[in-house]
Design goal:
Length: 164
């Protein structure tokens, strides 16, 4: 499910909707968009990010568990952390807010529910019934020792297997 969420973010950024103006470069899975962990090297064999300054990336992490409903076994409330870094405070904040707007949209503007996630590697089709942000994006390193700014946002994806 975490790979499906990551590919959904990759496929949706940049969006041509108000309030989301993703700044190039685009998010590319394995290059500057990571799933599950932040690797030492990306798929291009470039170092990421421990020995680099000014590295811009987004990581989709599952650093918390989830809840299941025993009455409906195909449902899960999955906790996901979006962790992003950029070389300036406002660059990192903008990236975090763009992803926040994508995932936690107001139902009165663009709709925040009923999102079919992309199927990855023959896995199940997941439906994000609701995506709740636990809070707005917040800086957690402001800056770090290399001068990078890091934001984190936690979400709860209320999911079920989509059967069509």
């Amino acid at each position: 499910m975490i790979r499906e969420i990551t590919h959904y973010i990759e496929n949706q950024m940049p969006l041509e909707v108000p309030f989301i103006t993703w700044t190039p470069p685009a998010l590319v899975f394995g290059v500057n968009l990571f799933v599950g962990h932040i690797p030492i090297r990306n798929i291009n064999n470039d170092n990421v990010p421990a020995d680099l300054t000014n590295q811009r990336y987004v990581a989709v992490l599952e650093n918390a568990g989830g809840a299941v409903d025993n009455q409906q076994p195909d449902m899960i409330d999955k906790a996901i952390q979006i962790y992003n870094q950029a070389d300036s405070y406002f660059g990192a904040r903008k990236d975090a807010m763009d992803i926040f707007m994508l995932l936690h949209r107001d139902v009165n503007t663009y709709g925040a529910a009923g999102i079919d996630l992309p199927v990855v590697a023959g896995g199940p089709n997941w439906l994000a019934m609701v995506i709740d942000a636990v809070s707005v994006p917040a800086p957690i390193q402001n800056p770090d020792a290399k001068g990078n700014f890091i934001f984190s946002t936690n979400y709860i994806f209320r999911m079920e297997k989509a059967i069509c």
